[in-house]
Amino acid sequence: MTGLFERLGASTLNSITTLGRAVLFLLRVIAGCGEWVRRPGLLMRELYSVGVLTLVIIVVSGLFVGMVLSLQGYYTLVDFGAEQSLGVLVALSLTRELGPVVTALLFAGRAGSALTAEIGLMKATEQLAGMEMMAVDPERRVIAPRLTAAFISLPLLAVIFTLLGIIGAYIVGTALLGVDSGAFWSQMQAQVSFGDDVLNGVIKSLLFGLVAGWIAVFNGYDCMPTSHGVSRATTRTVVVTSLAVLALDFVLTALMFD
Amino acid sequence: MTANAPAPANSVLIDINALHYRRGGRLLFAGIDLAVERGEVVAIMGPSGTGKTTLLRLIGGQLSPQSGRVEVAGQRVDALSRRALYRLRRGMGVLFQSGALFTDLSCFDNVAFPLREHTELPEALIRIIVLMKLEAVGLRGARDLYPAQLSGGMARRVSLARALALDPEIILYDEPFAGQDPISMGALMKLIRQLNDALGLTSVIVSHDVDETLSIADRVYVLSDGQIIESGTPEALRQSDSAWVRQFIDAQPDGPVPFHYPAASIADDLGVDSEL
Amino acid sequence: MEGRSVENSRRVDLAVGAFVAAGLAALFVLAMQVSNITAFQRAEGYTVVGYFQNVGGLRERAPVRLGGVQIGRVSDIELDQSRFEARVAMTIAQDYNDLPSDTAASIRTSGLLGEQYISLEPGGMPDALSEGDELMLTQSALVLEDIIGQFLYNQGAGGSE
To answer: Does C34 touch chain A (CB under 8 A)?
Structure first.
């Protein structure tokens, strides 16, 4: 019995130490952002691999999520004779919740795991140590551009996801379900507020971008420099980012939307 | 072209005194003394797991000792600020065991990396320097290949060219001969010795390849169990009486470093009467 | 880390630029087409006030319609403690500045379960409503319990004849 408590205590201490390490790491990386400001080519390259290459999955997912939302929403609304409010339902769901959250989850799976694997492999093949011995700080040169790229990309991806979701919903709603296109847009425009809904969604995705990027680069930087270590770190990135995003979403929703 | 720490007047470039280092509960170094003079090729040898690579990390400032002094070019490495440490490292080249080339850059870009990072030289001049460094290691023709396309020995030579890019004063070699075929080994041996003499370098080689290392070193330190058990010229070592050194140099499987990992007697393990 | 191919880095820059532009464009579209960033602002219209006994489910930003056409938006709902009535402030678009001063306001529901809105019926007075005027004729929202009670009462009264 005491063995169980010991292990629990040790594991908790371990988690807290890791968190502390991660926070110090984040602060050092943020301080090192001056590097890519002087050499924007570093940031461009990372924006490409983190942002542009995630576009495909975001676009496709956005369309499908919007289309499904439209279908399901219609089936429920039609019972209340409120099917003309479909646009409102879809737009609010996407801008407030699904846009930021689903984008963050997809990002964690595609870009987050790629970042962790890349950095972990660089650590395992001693490229990071080699860079250090060549008097180049890998936190500034390698990590900071990648974290910044995640922070910038995620809100952009979320907004694109949301818009495509609405377009998908519009296509399904008007062409398939017979919702009046005028009502679709006019009710949406009446009910969706830029400041409260769209902007809050963007703020959420900015925070998600920071969290997703931070977890991804830290897990890569901190992993055991073996192939097993890298694979475990990659899995950990996806799992921890997903949990963190969902928990953070709950807190933010409670704060923002009352 | 050189961007190094100022050269001291004395001839001892690396000075290690009463070094104690512990990792994970294990005492790796229990008070060792080591000195490397300018222009020498010094070898640090010993069985696997004695912390030879850790010693290089201590010299390069990646690790800090629990007690004792590690001085490079007259400066205490563990007491340096980050900026001063980085300045010191620019005068130090390191050859990692795995080469540590950047896999997404060509050989040319790998060698050019320290030049582009630390100097403001124009591309044309960088090109000349890179080609010269690659020529010195015999791989000028491979400059556009990527690390994945190189053999192990070639990758190590490109790493050496990269380590030499900023004309350092010191080069640290971490197991340069490990896992190499005889031809690559011959090439590396030739390069290490000739470059050291031609460029006025000071080289520290960590290795356990006895014949190769003894043939090019000026002085050798033998490390075992956290202590320096012998030091001297290669000839002195070959004639040494110490049992440890003899086991190492003669490649004896059993001796002061035992063949059997500590265990209970085999009779007990197999459950038989030891009288039989 | 950077390779040095010029064409490659130009392609990368182009892709990144397109990505960021697409994101910003999407944000712009969301602002313009999806949300009501161009909704009736206070500056764009004039405010009139109505007092209601019961506002029912009326919310702020609910539409104000005349003849079914939206001409404004509810800007504020609060309780007037001296009259113990709900004070509803409405912003009417500047274009509609010729409403008779005896215009009546009633709270209606769109559809059976839809949102509630204010419906204006014009009166016949020649002078027009202006900033800060009060609508004198108001009709509160229908409360279901009252209607049922009324119905039962009528049934009881009629049944006893």
So the answer is: yes
What number of C-beta contacts closer than 8 Å exist between B and C?
A: 8
For residue C40, what pLDDT band results from cuts at 50, 70 and 90?
Answer: very low
**pLDDT tens digits along B74-107:** 888 888 888 888 888 888 888 888 778 998 889 9
Structure tokens at C34: 């999806």
A125 touches chain B (CB under 8 A): yes
Please check whether residues C33 and C68 belong to one and the same domain: no
Write out the DSSP string of B24-54. Answer: TTEEEEEEEEEEEETT-EEEEE-STTSSHHH
pLDDT, one tens digit per residue, over C103-136 is 999 998 877 667 788 999 988 888 888 888 888 8
- CB atoms under 10 Å from CB of C155, counted, come to 10
How many domains does chain C contain in total? 2
Of A212, A162, A151, nearest to A59 by C-alpha is: A162
Q: Tell me, yes or no, whether C73 and C110 share the same domain.
A: yes
Does residue B221 come out as left (phi exceeding 0), alpha (psi in the -120 to 50 range) or beta? beta
Which residues is B235 bridged to in the sheet?
none
Residue C153 domain-assigned? no
Is residue C103 located within the same domain as residue C67? yes
Q: Are C136 and C106 part of one and the same domain?
A: yes
Is residue C158 situated within a structural domain? Answer: no
DSSP C42-111: GGGEEEEEEEES--TT--TT-EEEETTEEEEEEEEEEEETTTTEEEEEEEEETT----BTT-EEEEEEST
- CB of B37 within 8 Å of a chain C CB? The answer is no
Which residues between 157 and 186 in chain A have a beta carbon less than 8 angstroms from any beta carbon of chain C?
Answer: 157, 159-160, 162-163, 166, 185
Provide the shortest C-alpha distance from residue B272 to chain A (in Å). Answer: 36
Closest residue by Cα to residue C129 from C148, C101, C153, C154: C101
Domain boundaries, position C134: 42-143
Q: C7 and C78 share a domain?
A: no
pTM > 0.90: no
Residues in chain A: 258
Across the A:B interface, residue pairs with CB atoms under 8 Å apart total: 47
ipTM of the complex: 0.76
**Both C59 and C5 in a single domain?**
no
Same domain, yes or no: C30 and C56? no
Structural domain boundaries in chain A: 32-256
In a domain, C101, yes or no: yes
Which tokens in the block code for residue A111? 């870009």
**DSSP, residue by residue, chain B:** ----PPPPSSSEEEEEEEEEEEETTEEEEEEEEEEEETT-EEEEE-STTSSHHHHHHHHHTSS--SEEEEEETTEEGGG--HHHHHHHHHTEEEE-TT----TTS-HHHHHHHHHHHH----HHHHHHHHHHHHHHTT-GGGTT--GGGS-HHHHHHHHHHHHTTT--SEEEEESTTTT--HHHHHHHHHHHHHHHHHHT-EEEEEE--HHHHHHH-SEEEEEETTEEEEEE-HHHHHT---HHHHHHHTT-SSSSS-SSPS---HHHHHT--TT-
C31 falls within a domain: yes
pLDDT tens digits for B192-250? Answer: 898 889 888 899 998 888 888 888 889 998 887 778 888 888 888 888 877 777 877 77
Rounded to 10 deg, the angle between the C6-29 and A144-171 helix axes is: 50
Question: Are residues C15 and C51 located together in one domain of the fold?
Answer: no
Judge whether B6 and B57 are in contact, CB under 8 Å. Answer: no
Contact C27 A45 (CB under 8 A): no
